[in-house]
Amino acid sequence: MPVVLDPDAAAVYKAFQEAGRPAYETLTAPEARAYYSQARFATNPDAPELARVAPLAIPAPHGVIPARLYVPKEPRQRDGLSPALVFFHGGGWVIGDLDSHDVVCRQLAVEGALIVISIDYRLAPEHKFPAAAEDAVAATQWVAGNARELGIDASRLSIGGDSAGGNLTAVVALAARDAGGPALAGQVLIYPATDFAMTHGSHSEPETSVLLTHSVIRWFRDHYLNSAADIHDWRASPARAQSLARLPPAYVLTAGADPLRDEGDEYADRLRQAGVPVTTKHYPGQFHGFFTMGKLLAKANVAVGEIGAWLKGLG
């Protein structure tokens, strides 16, 4: 598929190339995390002010899962309780943390007029699959079980995330369905990774190897998975689930210059075929990762606003 970057996306890509930043696959995981963490200062927009931001410690079998609570100044309340979004950050299951997605979580809280809880799940390679998936499921269950204490209306609880976080979102939706709860109002899949087989056409097109290159995807995969056998496990590749029926309404965002484009499109199509209400949004001139770059890319802020509006539409 021919891809032409939007002018601002092309300028950002050119700047990244000229900066001479080392490719993540040439670094250790801690080194890659440091580079990713520093990049946010150049790409994240100004953080909107909220009524409250507070740390959370979610109990888990291995100890605690760090999280962060975001409460906007004007949440949509019903009987004193607000809708909420449990958010899983991107970063290939290897990089990223609460700080890397702090601004976008604040933006979502404001645009959606809801509480956001960002989850700092365990990262690979220190914690291989299925650690991240287990943390995402456990954290969502805990939020649902403690909703009232958190000021959350459990009947209006949604989940979402970008890239690896989109993968975890899809996994949590499937796990909740199969476990009989918690009930979820919606799922936001922002350029999600859905199939580790990586055989879709967009994984081999030269035009999609922008920032998230084909080689760095394999680096992320090899850090996260234990072996090729994990590819077939739906907790790694949610597209491998036997059925996508009875899942919550979905918002699926894809980008043109993204190796994950085609698997995101296919997952949205399969959700529709399974009877799930699906809203799709495609940004043909943007690359993977643009969603958090609102300081440099106007479409990033448009995307946050549209997702916020969709979340409002859930009730």
One letter per element, helices H and strands E, the order comes to HHEEEHEHEHEHEHEH
Q: Name the poorly predicted regions.
A: none
Give the amount of beta strand, in percent: 15-25%
The first-to-last residue Cα distance is: 37 Å
Question: Can you describe what's shown?
Answer:
35% of the residues lie in helices and 20% in strands. It is α/β, with parallel strands linked by helices and 315 residues long. An 8-stranded mixed β-sheet has the order 1-2-4-3-5-6-7-8, with helices on both faces. The chain is globular, with a radius of gyration of 18 Å.
Structural topology:
Layout: H1 7-18, H2 29-43, E1 52-60, E2 63-71, E3 82-88, H3 102-112, E4 115-119, H4 131-145, E5 152-162, H5 164-179, E6 186-190, H6 214-224, E7 250-257, H7 261-273, E8 278-287, H8 298-313
Parallel strand pairs: 3-4, 3-5, 5-6, 6-7, 7-8
Antiparallel strand pairs: 1-2, 2-4
List keywords for this structure.
315 residues; alpha/beta; eight-stranded mixed β-sheet; 8 strands; 35% helix; globular
In short:
With 315 residues, the chain is α/β, with parallel strands linked by helices. The protein has helices at 7-18, 29-43, 102-112, 131-145, 164-179, 214-224, 261-273, 298-313; strands spanning 52-60, 63-71, 82-88, 115-119, 152-162, 186-190, 250-257, 278-287. The chain has an eight-stranded mixed β-sheet, sandwiched between helices.
